Amino acid sequence: MQTITETQPKLKKEINTIQLWSLAVGMVISGEYFGWNYGWQTSGTIGFLFSTLLVTLMYVTFIFSYTELTAAIPKAGGPFSFATRAFGPIGGFIAGFATLVDFLLAMPAIAYALGAYIHFLIPQIPVEETAISMYVIFIAVNWFGIKEGARISLIVTLLSVGEILLFMGLIVFNFKSDNFFAHNPPTISFGSIFAGIPFAIWFFVAIEGVAMVAEEVKNPQKTIPRGYISAIITLVILALGIMILSAGVGDWRKLQQIDHPLPEVLAMVFGHESGWTKIFTSLGLFGLIASFHGNTISYSRQIFALARENYLPNQLSFLNRYQTPHWALIAGGLIGVLAIYSGKTDQIIVMSGLGAVVMYAISMVSLLVLRKKEPDLERPYKTPFYPIFPYLALVLALFCTAAISYFYPLLSAIFFGLLFFFLILFVLFGFKYIKSNIG
């Protein structure tokens, strides 16, 4: 079993329920602002609605199940810690790899969207320069500790949720069902629904990142379930509201390939020069900033946890005087900057989504195994409708993995090829050392 010894670095407990809710919603809320609209390109509005409902079911059952693990094993490693406890080092490695892909690739996609929003407002500012500056700013912000970061997250997330509610209020009376159903193929195929899955995942991906701050939560057994469940309810309402209303205000085909769909929706209603359009685009930065900030916390804690257990170079687990894993912040930032220059937001989203669903599947199997392997483990929160919820989440996660692999074979081959390559290296060079440190 994994343990944290007295000599290992430890994180400070600073986060309360409302801050945890804000981190969970904040990590995800950028997915309401961009990314999901690429699903219309592959599926149309009707097919993508079915994609979204399928993915929503997966996330609801997943979060109600995942919360049991997070409350029972509040470790910064999140899925890595759960899988290591259930399956040992190899299971932990696979979960850790999938989680890193999930968060490290979500970051450059969000950064690129931030750049696109600012470029929409001020065309003279290049997208890439803005994206890179976001890494510099938020690595600096998080350098000074989780307490300060959580306060910033709460403020920015509240502003973001308020802005999305305002957005829906501004366009709801311009919604026309004819627009929503227009330009769709005469029949909706299963293939089109499945092809939209990675973009529907973008509505919710990264909510699992709250597990990475579990060591920093006050009274985690009560705080984590409250924060997680309230967050998933918030996100379901926002996701369905934005997607359905946005498709009904005009020709949705104009929105299916851009990184700033919400300002364009308002432009359809009020015009590009409208004050509402300009104001919303400016305020829209809050949602992207909330997610960028939250995911900065998540990726750094995942790198920290893997390094603390020697899955990554141990130096990445070092803490500065603010109890922040500063080298982990920098390392993840460097990877993100390299990814920004690919300029392929849709492909980055697919890869991030694939890492996420693989991690969801491993987490659900870990839950089922630990129920049998450690029946006496203290579980302050237990999954409702067990074992239906975790089995349903597992089946849907595996289904989404298969769908992404089928429709995006090259990206999937890269993901699984890298996983296999690094797993071989781990077995050859790292397994014995890691195993000797897990008692």
From TrEMBL:
> Where is it chiefly localized?
membrane
Q: Which GO terms describe its cellular component?
A: plasma membrane
Q: Which domain of life is it from?
A: Bacteria
Q: Could you tell me where this protein is found in the cell?
A: Cell membrane
Could you tell me one molecular function GO term of this UniProt entry? transmembrane transporter activity
Keyword annotations for this protein, in alphabetical order, are: Cell membrane, Membrane, Transmembrane, Transmembrane helix
Membrane topology term: Multi-pass membrane protein
Q: Where are the transmembrane segments?
A: 18-36, 48-66, 86-118, 130-146, 152-175, 187-207, 227-249, 324-342, 348-370, 391-408, 414-434
What is the protein named? Ethanolamine permease
Query: What is the native source organism of this protein?
Result: Xanthocytophaga agilis
Traced from the root, the source organism's taxonomic lineage reads: Bacteria, Pseudomonadati, Bacteroidota, Cytophagia, Cytophagales
